[in-house]
Design goal:
Helix content is about 40%, strand content about 15%. It is α/β, with parallel strands linked by helices and about 260 residues long. Helix 1 (about 25-35) runs parallel beside helix 9 and helix 3 crosses helix 4.
Amino acid sequence: MSEPLSLYGVELKSRLLLGTSKYPSLDMMAKSVRAAGAEVVTVSVRRESAQFREGQDFWRIIRELGVLVLPNTAGCYSVKEAVTTAQMAREIFDTAWIKLEVIGDQGTLAPDVFGTVEAAKILSDDGFEVFPYTTEDLIVCDRLIDAGCQVLMPWGAPIGSGKGLNNPFGLRVLRARHPDVPLVVDAGLGLPSHAAAAMELGYDAVLLNTAVGTAGDPVAMAAAFRQAIEAGVAARRAGPMRPKEFAQPSSPTVGVAALA
């Protein structure tokens, strides 16, 4: 059994964090969370509970699932907006956890890294435990740690794109730079193989939503991501072979008879 994942002192068995939007129904969302084995779900403070016209049922199901809620500031485009939304989330959910999103570009939904660092400092000083959505840029991540963040959440690709890991080199360097900081790939994963690749790079967890919520069979896809993450962790710990520039025979040649 793999070692538990520790996020701000909370130990988790699952390394898959799952979003709660985009599902065809609340029942499908609940079944997907269970299939994923997720212990943490993200919920937008601005979430339209009327999406299902079952607002109270949504919260009842979340309670029944027994999961931890990670509120997020999705849709915020300024520091002030993100900080205010985080403060609202703390009152609503009674938690110091906050997934901080300060969006800088409407087309790509890329984070405003300058605003994210500023907001992270304000929130950390106010007692929040911040999970910042960021890029894999080393300097930005260093600044976020200096601001008080004990977890970093670099994107794999733009939100909802399903492109996977656009910059494996950058993600690998970030992992090497901060070997002891929990790193969660957040956004852009579309296939279970993308999640496995993130874990093989040594990342601690992944957070996703669209890839499961919009799948033809969300429950089956959630289970597939769970299996992929477990496989990626196992592969990383098994000590994968190093890539080589040239071919190397897998069968020995010494002592083999030369046939004319």
